[in-house]
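Go through this chain for my students:
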Amino acid sequence: MNFDGIWTPVITPFAQDGSIQLDTLRKVVDTLIDQGVHGLIIGGTTGEYYALSKEERKQVFDSVAGHAKGRIPIMAGINATTTEDSLELGQHAKAAGFDAILVAAPYYCQPAQDELLTHIRCVDDALDMPIMLYNFPDRTGVPMTLELIEALRDHPNVQAIKESTGSIERMHALANDHADQLQLSCGMDDQVLEFFVWGARSWVAGASNFLAPEHVALYQACVVEQDFVAGRELAARLLPMLNLLEQGGKFCQYIKYGCELAGLPVGPAHRPLLPLNETEKARFQRTYDALLQHRG
């Protein structure tokens, strides 16, 4: 499967009581498709999958698949604390019509590398779908080592990796030593230009929920046109926002506030995450307004 392009890890809209707002979710999907993103990820970190029950996650899969299938590639995040739950979610996503799955290390239990390898192989053997790995040890507590990546060469469904460690050295190793095995996807937003320079053709970008045109333009410049002068100018405009998101400590809240400022309110983040305070909102608003000044 070709994972080129901007993949938006879609937010999950909530009402104030925490219930999922499926009508709003479908509006978000329509907006993203209209704005030219290349794929949607449902059930990723930005979608707050960890705050949803399995049944709620399946409900979201069904809603998006029924609404978006055939218009844009869709990928299902199936991470859970057990292999069995990941398989159940993956089987549901496959039946719903998803094109690929996003596979991270099960969180909290901190599997050893041989256990994580067995988990990934089990998921692949059971589901037989294109897989994008998601390496984000700051969230899961467990890295996907280069040795583990090498050991997955016998599973050709493992076709891409969203790399979110922040390590430039590791990104170089993936780009140079595993380019024949995995499509490299930027998972560290404030390093996107570096990823594109080193051959990545994919960006899983949380801020594309509310800044899709800017993300698509940066991809077009760097990946399609190979114009890194223009790409650097576009990246420089985005960088203050990307830095705030990566370093501000309230990623999901900022993404949802960005959607609100963009004219599509999606409700609060799920508790225990709390709403932004007025100081945080003002800082975000200034960053957002400065970025929009460059829109034509």
